[in-house]
TrEMBL record:
Any one biological process term the GO annotation gives: fungal-type cell wall organization
This protein's record includes keyword rRNA-binding: no
Main location: secreted
Keywords of the record: Cell wall, Glycoprotein, Secreted, Signal
Chain ranges passing through the membrane: none
Source organism superkingdom: Eukaryota
InterPro entries: CWI-Assembly_Regulator, Rcpt_L-dom_sf
Localization, UniProt: Secreted, Cell wall
Protein name: Uncharacterized protein
Cellular component terms (Gene Ontology): cell surface; fungal-type cell wall; plasma membrane
Lineage of origin: Eukaryota, Fungi, Dikarya, Ascomycota, Pezizomycotina
Region (Disordered): 190-213
PANTHER family: RECEPTOR PROTEIN-TYROSINE KINASE, SPORULATION-SPECIFIC PROTEIN-RELATED
């Protein structure tokens, strides 16, 4: 189901919808569009663009990807979502300041958070353990909190305007200890953070590591067992 280019559409409330077997996509509708799916439990793919509110309190699983792009809401919560089979993305939503996924344990694709100006803390994922794809964060955030993360099977790209160099120190340790399996790129103090860069030029604290070097190999291996609980936690300044 593709709902787009309806400038006078301001509300969608479907109480009876419980399952989406293929996909639902919203884009370029009314500027203040609110979408309510109070009883949606399972979905294949979900895409939301240019909306002011999305509420899916019963959503438990997404077999494919779920993406939010250029929206105007300030917060989003998926209290019962436990896993996605594909990517989870929040992109170009300048008012977004808070995310809450208290039950999410697995992201089956990539994890993309980019260009959300008001999002100063990437947090709200207390049970997230596994990211099957790559982790890609770019923005103005100055903290990352993921206390249960034990496995990123792809690489990681973290770029922020914040000058908090501790962010990169922690991601570099995570890579050195095998939590992040692919190439790790981290830059703080960058004027224009980018997603999936081909290089790490610019910024005050660039770092890119493909394999642990001698110094990194000397770091304590405890993180391979306990994840980022002590590594990427409570970096609030």
């Amino acid at each position: 189901m593709d709902i787009n280019n309806n400038p006078y559409l301001t509300s969608v409330n479907v109480n009876q919808l419980k399952n989406v077997t293929t996909a639902i996509s919203f884009s370029a509708n009314g500027r203040d569009l609110e979408i309510l799916f109070p009883n949606l439990i399972d979905a294949a793919n979900l895409t939301f663009r240019n909306v002011s509110r999305v509420a899916m309190p019963s959503l438990a699983t997404v077999a494919g990807s779920i993406g939010f792009y250029s929206n105007s809401f300030e917060s989003f919560a998926a209290p019962n979502l436990t896993q996605t089979g594909g990517t989870l993305a929040f992109v170009d939503s300048p008012n977004l300041a808070n995310l809450s996924f208290p039950s999410l344990t697995t992201i089956g694709g990539g994890f993309l958070i980019a260009n959300n100006t008001d999002l100063k803390a990437i947090a709200g994922f207390p049970k997230l353990k596994t990211i099957v794809g790559a982790l890609d964060f770019a923005g103005t955030f100055d903290s990352v909190v993921m206390g249960s993360l034990t496995e990123v099977r792809g690489g990681s790209n973290v770029q922020t305007t914040s000058t908090n160099e501790t962010i990169c120190e922690l991601f570099n340790k995570a890579h050195a200890n095998g939590v992040i399996r692919g190439v790790n790129t981290c830059i703080t103090g960058k004027a224009n953070p980018e997603t999936n860069p081909s290089s790490t030029g610019g910024g005050s604290s660039p770092s890119s590591t493909a394999e642990p070097n001698g110094a990194a190999a000397m770091m304590t291996p405890v993180l391979s067992m306990t994840g980022l609980a002590g590594l990427i936690a409570a970096l609030l300044f």
